[in-house]
């Protein structure tokens, strides 16, 4: 959760770039991301070194003896010009070092090969490093929040909107799906890799170091997958995952729903917030996707893609715009009937429309489904999230204590105050009810309830919660009509007397 203070600090750094002659927003985001990466790389090295020493294990450093000057702790203490020379050296400086991280043929190395230093003035670099050093990045989620804030400054430029998924919504979806070491996870609209990083953090938290070591090759090379066609996002996603211990993530440079993406039956878990309200050229769409839903709308094509890419038994938690849930067009009904009738729709969680503010006021929902190829939908669990812990206006102020906001998880401590503050923060309740969703016997007037398959089919596969939720109207008793008329006549007589008095003056 990014605070007002950190926003001010990032804005100050942004202004430093501008006054230093760098005004291109993408350039600023990239250069600042590189600096955060270098800073975090050094801090990660220090943590790993201490951990290895404590466990009496062999330590393999990222920084060799000749690369100690590249460590943030040493860079920040250097002479201004000497530091700039290290950054600017295109042969054996810090950027060739960054490009060398990861194996020679890894996708990380491929995407980082174009990484280059773009701060021409030594004084500008000095000010940026000085101000960046003041930003508290000690909390686990803060770098992702900073990325989110930085990227909000981009004016559309190929970013597709998916990176703006709030961190606590990403965490909610990850906690609901409970990824395991056996999973192969994909985000087909990977952006900055927020969902994949959240899955990695979940796994790190729930498995001990021995288990993680056993699955190290799977974690580094096979577990984390994604597609993205924006070069900036590819580099940021690669750096983000590298800093979270994934050395060779499989992030592919391709338009996910195009003919060039042929992946199928590959993943056991999809976590995603694909682009909304976009369209794609009909000729470039993978033909198999249009067999499921004959459309050019990206929000529908991505769902068809996920069904294709999941293995049988694979699960998905996906954010979709409300139109997907109730759209009357043939393509909308086709994708809904495909998921509900031919696979297993587990849950529909309606999100408040302010969740994506200040960037967008679009109404959305999380849908959870399992690929079965032979149906299986019996009852679908609906939940009407009314409060996500923040104000639903453009300010998005926190409404609960930070400790409560950050503690929710299946195994985390949900304090009594979180329960008492349910009207402001529904996420702990969702996590408490989701595992027992099929035991839900609550009435349709409640915040969550079950809807049987047959009823959904009868309603043209409509998945909007308002279609099934019952609203109890409070009975209001009015006076008898003759009593109301009598009062009106009395008021009329009184008005006439006042007017008569005024006319006599």
TrEMBL record:
EC number: 2.1.1.72
Positions of the N6 adenine-specific DNA methyltransferase N-terminal domain: 6-132
InterPro entries named among the record's database cross-references: D12N6_MeTrfase_N (IPR022749), DNA_Adenine_Mtase (IPR051537), DNA_methylase_A-5 (IPR003356), DNA_methylase_N6_adenine_CS (IPR002052), SAM-dependent_MTases_sf (IPR029063), T1MK-like_N_sf (IPR038333)
Catalyzed chemical reaction(s): a 2'-deoxyadenosine in DNA + S-adenosyl-L-methionine = an N(6)-methyl-2'-deoxyadenosine in DNA + S-adenosyl-L-homocysteine + H(+)
Cross-referenced Gene3D superfamilies: 1.20.1260.30, Vaccinia Virus protein VP39 (3.40.50.150)
DNA methylase adenine-specific domain segment(s): 139-471
One function term, GO molecular function aspect: site-specific DNA-methyltransferase (adenine-specific) activity
SUPFAM superfamilies: S-adenosyl-L-methionine-dependent methyltransferases
UniProt keywords, alphabetically: Methyltransferase, Restriction system, S-adenosyl-L-methionine, Transferase
Gene Ontology biological process terms from the UniProt entry: DNA restriction-modification system; methylation
PROSITE patterns to which the protein is assigned, alphabetical: N6_MTASE
Similarity section: Belongs to the N(4)/N(6)-methyltransferase family.
Protein name: site-specific DNA-methyltransferase (adenine-specific)
UniProt organism field: Winogradskyella arenosi
UniProt lineage: Bacteria, Pseudomonadati, Bacteroidota, Flavobacteriia, Flavobacteriales
